[in-house]
UniProtKB/TrEMBL annotation:
NAD(+) binds at G323, Q324, G325. Keywords: CBS domain, Metal-binding, NAD, Oxidoreductase, Potassium. It comes from the Bacteria. This is IMP dehydrogenase. Residues 99-158, 162-224 form the CBS domain. Belongs to the IMPDH/GMPR family. The lineage of its organism: Bacteria, Pseudomonadati, Verrucomicrobiota, Opitutia, Puniceicoccales. GO terms for molecular function: IMP dehydrogenase activity; metal ion binding. The active site is at C330, R425. The keyword Protease does not apply. PANTHER family: INOSINE-5'-MONOPHOSPHATE DEHYDROGENASE, INOSINE-5-MONOPHOSPHATE DEHYDROGENASE RELATED. Pfam families: CBS, IMPDH. InterPro entries: Aldolase_TIM, CBS_dom, CBS_dom_sf, IMP_DH, IMP_DH_GMPRt. K(+) binds at G325, G327, C330.
């Protein structure tokens, strides 16, 4: 027998995070000096290279807000109605943006009862309202202390502060830094909680509130650098599925209509998320979106080859998701027998991405900060599901089992998630789910892991340490300085605590 009688022996090797370790390099960089800033597209700059997965047990508005506050990005999933998804994106975009541009208003002829109904209907948390006439001209400010049941029958104009008593600035006085301007105003006017913005004709254009400005200033003091757009709003992404008509063709009008609504709320990045991005359907969707929304950042995937990256880049994607089957709840490799271990996939994709001038996201399989460091030697940012699913900001209720607290975490290719809407992501129609359709994900539980801030600070801390060991002052240098060694099974055992009885489970970077 010679070697060719056996199965070809020189197959390429697929490696993943635990198969390699990074070599230490000469360093003049202390971990805390390492910069985690990155630019993902013309309009998306982050201060943390971490994106939360568009999964129905990971990212809704609370997660997207928490991720953007940490400097990263959240992608709101699409296993909900289109209307609900638009609302979720609006919640993120309207979260403490310094200047509130479409404030709720009252009218002089209304009663306090009408205002109370607005409070109830819109579930607003505050009680002070600018009062405007039919031409949107500012006529007064209704103070919160009169928006009470006992004054229900009074008219707004009887109870409001009149125009001459209301503090305002004009749009042109806001200047380059709205927060600084408002902060200065509130410092100079003790006891005033609202500053209204008007145009030259005295029409209401927005308002600042003291509590928002205090929160933003607090963030600045605590070194938090939220990811914001050029209007100072938090960044937010959302995923869509390729909606098809009964005859199988893309429902172009519906997709364009929904994406227009998302963009109308200020959406920053749209993800066409599927299990198989190197496919005609995904290419068609990306081309449609690129031609209709030339300025929108488009994320598409998932792929695991250079060809796949080129295909989606040519279709118009700015950012390409890499990963098939590395995820903690994924069974694609077991069910379909397909997929490439994640580090090898990233290696292949990173070369093509560089040549095409697009960015890549390492999606799935990140289970510790060391994996983030290794992934970022090839990718521009990582996408995490499982690591964030146990956070209080993830959707879903907390379950108690034998005294321990858990949250549900499920694959978007699990039967339950596909029934809730994600079937198209795996190339199935919801109506087919009762027939034999293989699920490609599992339903699982994650132990509660605290807040996003806590989880992210652990990941960012580990990333900075890795950058310190590699002498990398920023994420570009991390890529340039990376040298890999292949780890043997004995080397892998050596990398975890061994020959000791562990009394405290956290891993320390020393030793
Ligand atoms: P982690 O490891 O962070 O992975 O939990 C999250 C990523 O896994 C992908 N994903 C799936 N892949 N079947 C799969 O094969 C699934 O059911 C599934 N659900 C999510 C997705 O890319 C996510 O970001």
């Amino acid at each position: 027998l010679n070697a060719d009688d056996f199965f070809p022996s020189m197959l390429p090797t697929g490696l993943t995070f635990d198969d390699v370790s990074l070599a230490t390099r000469y360093s003049e960089v202390l971990p805390r000096q390492a910069s985690l800033n990155l630019t993902l597209s013309k309009r998306i700059s982050l201060h943390l290279p971490i994106v939360s997965s568009d999964m129905d047990t990971v990212t809704e508005s609370n997660m997207a807000i928490a991720m953007a506050l940490q400097g990263g990005l959240g992608i709101v999933h699409y296993n909900m109605s289109e209307k609900q998804q638009v609302r979720e994106v609006a919640r993120v975009k309207n979260y403490v943006n310094g200047l509130i541009q479409d404030p709720f208003v009252a009218h002089p002829e209304q009663t306090i009862g009408d205002v109370l109904e607005l409070v109830e209907r819109k579930n607003v948390k505050f009680r002070t309202f600018p009062v405007v006439d039919q031409d949107e001209k500012l006529v007064g400010l209704l103070p919160g202390r009169v928006v009470k049941e006992r004054y229900r029958s009074h008219r707004v104009e009887e109870a409001m502060h009149v125009r001459s008593q209301v503090h305002t600035i004009t749009e042109s006085e806001i200047g380059e830094n709205p927060v600084e301007t408002a902060d200065q105003f509130f410092s100079d006017h003790l006891g005033i909680h609202k500053l209204l913005v008007v145009d030259q004709e005295d029409r209401l254009k927005g308002l600042f509130t003291l509590s928002d400005i205090e929160r933003i200033s607090e963030e600045a003091r605590s070194n938090l650098r939220p990811a914001r757009d050029d209007r100072f709003r938090l960044l937010c992404g959302a995923a869509i599925s390729a909606v098809r008509k009964a005859d199988g063709s893309l429902d172009r009008d519906r997709i364009i209509g929904h994406v227009s609504n998302l963009v109308g709320e200020g959406l920053d990045a749209l993800a066409v998320s599927t299990a198989h991005g190197f496919s005609a359907g995904v290419g068609e969707s990306v081309r449609l979106l690129r031609s209709e929304f030339p300025d929108l950042t488009i994320i598409a995937g998932n792929v695991t080859s250079g060809d796949g990256v080129e295909y989606l880049a040519d279709a118009g994607a700015d950012i390409i998701k890499v990963g098939q089957g590395p995820g903690s709840i994924c069974t694609t490799r077991q069910i379909a027998g397909v997929g490439i271990p994640q580090l090898t996939a990233l290696y292949a994709c990173s070369k093509a991405a560089k040549a095409k001038g697009v960015r890549i996201l390492a999606d799935g399989g990140i289970s510790k900060s060391g994996d983030v460091v290794k992934a970022l030697t090839l990718a521009d940012a990582v996408m995490c599901g499982g690591l964030l699913a146990g956070c209080k900001e993830a959707p879903g209720t907390i379950l108690e089992i034998k005294g321990k607290l858990y949250k549900q975490y499920r694959g978007m290719g699990s039967e339950a998630a596909m029934k809730a809407g994600s079937a198209a992501r795996y190339g199935h129609a919801v109506k087919d789910l009762n027939r034999k359709v293989a699920s490609e994900g599992i339903e699982a539980l994650k132990e509660i892991s605290g807040s996003v801030e806590e989880v992210i600070s652990g990941l960012a801390g580990g990333l900075r340490s890795g950058m310190g060991y590699l002498g990398a002052k920023d994420l570009d240098a991390l890529k340039e300085n990376a040298l890999y060694v292949r780890v043997s099974p004995a080397g892998q055992r050596e990398a975890s605590p061994h020959d000791v009885i562990v009394v405290k489970a956290e891993t320390s970077e020393e030793g």
